[in-house]
Amino acid sequence: xxxxxxxxxxxxxxxxxxxxxxxxxxxxxxxxxxxxxxxxxxxxxxxxxxxxxxxxxxxxxxxxxxxxxxxxxxxxxxxxxxxxxxxxxxxxxxxxxxxxxxxxxxxxxxxxxxxxxxxxxxxxxxxxxxxxxxxxxxxxxxxxxxxxxxxxxxxxxxxxxxxxxxxxxxxxxxxxxxxxxxxxxxxxxxxxxxxxxxxxxxxxxxxxxxxxxxxxxxxxxxxxxxxxxxxxxxxxxxxxxxxxxxxxxxxxxxxxxxxxxxxxxxxxxxxxxxxxxxxxxxxxxxxxxxxxxxxxxxxxxxxxxxxxxxxxxxxxxxxxxxxxxxxxxxxxxxxxxxxxxxxxxxxxxxxxxxxxxxxxxxxxxxxxxxxxxxxxxxxxxxxxxxxxxxxxxxxxxxxxxxxxxxxxxxxxxxxxxxxxxxxxxxxxxxxxxxxxxxxxxxxxxxxxxxxxx
Length: 453
Known about the structure:
Blueprint: H1 3-12, H2 14-26, H3 37-51, E1 54-58, E2 65-70, E3 78-84, E4 104-106, E5 109-111, H4 119-136, E6 142-148, H5 158-164, E7 173-176, E8 188-190, E9 192-193, E10 195-204, E11 210-211, H6 222-233, H7 254-262, H8 267-274, H9 283-291, E12 297-303, E13 313-314, E14 317-326, H10 332-346, E15 351-358, E16 361-362, H11 368-381, E17 386-388, H12 398-403, E18 408-410, E19 426-428, H13 429-452
Parallel strand pairs: 3-6, 3-7, 7-18, 8-17
Antiparallel strand pairs: 1-2, 2-6, 4-5, 5-19, 9-16, 10-14, 10-15, 11-13, 12-14
Organism: Halobacillus shinanisalinarum
Keywords: Hydrolase, Metal-binding, Protease
């Protein structure tokens, strides 16, 4: 196999491959609302079987996993490919330029819910298997595929699924294509993700809203109670004051420090793309904060009246939603206990509710198989690959690195401005086809690598 052969096959099948992707995109699969999920799983299973992938639906306590495999030799190198077939709700509908579940091509991009996250990237992986098999006759390694239907709902049943199926999921490397490429347009190889803890704080005052004049200084304002609590949690420099919050953070290795120093960074370009022109930091600081430091974020603050004009009331309740992105080796459950202990100490009347969590994950950068994947990706895109220790966001990568004890890499195929989770989600047409070619080349290079081990 060589890339020119693969490129020729993909070029001849462009219309066919686009229609297969469009078929999957048209099928709704909104996990949070349980809309179309099983129909989508059945459709994906059928598409994989048509390619020659031995596929089955495997039940969980929630939505089913679509599991597929092509086994060359039980003793051969095994690549486990992960993705998800569920999508976010399309709201707000009036901001879409075309119907959210009817794929449309404009300006070289495919617009549809799930185009980038994750059906476009998932189908690039599936169609890579078809392309490789049709070009070469057989795969050089074993392939296993796990496509879940709950990633957009925090992958609540993936860990238990992996625990129950350790023997089935035995592999040598996990490969995920999700998220956007680097803002420069260069290909990425990401070696981990930050974890997350999501909590809700609720403060209550009187049983109902009161007149802010007639009852001012008499009835307490729960919004101020929350603000006073927040002041005890974080200092003026942004450092979290919760006891033990930073205790278990793994320090970056020298190799990881070197990688961070070498990452490309254009301050003005990044500032423009994130809509914050006041951004004032260098590349090393930017990437260290993005990959090696936890966050302590207020995602929403709701209390009282926020409509047009004025309404002079003392609210009866105030609510804050917070998310904390955690880094290796912080444990969400441990951080939650410490968070609750802090609230109990400073504001015991405030209610804390756990809304979700995900563990952080990181694969060491000095593994030889990381170099193999990085080289294959660079060759596929004919461009130097950016190697980054961690994604700033969260994926359920820990199920592979912690439960299966496997190295895991994330190689995004979608464009940086894919607008995933937003109206007018998209993936570049070329990004989709390049993803097929890249997956083929990664499989090929891993085959060559495995024969040398």
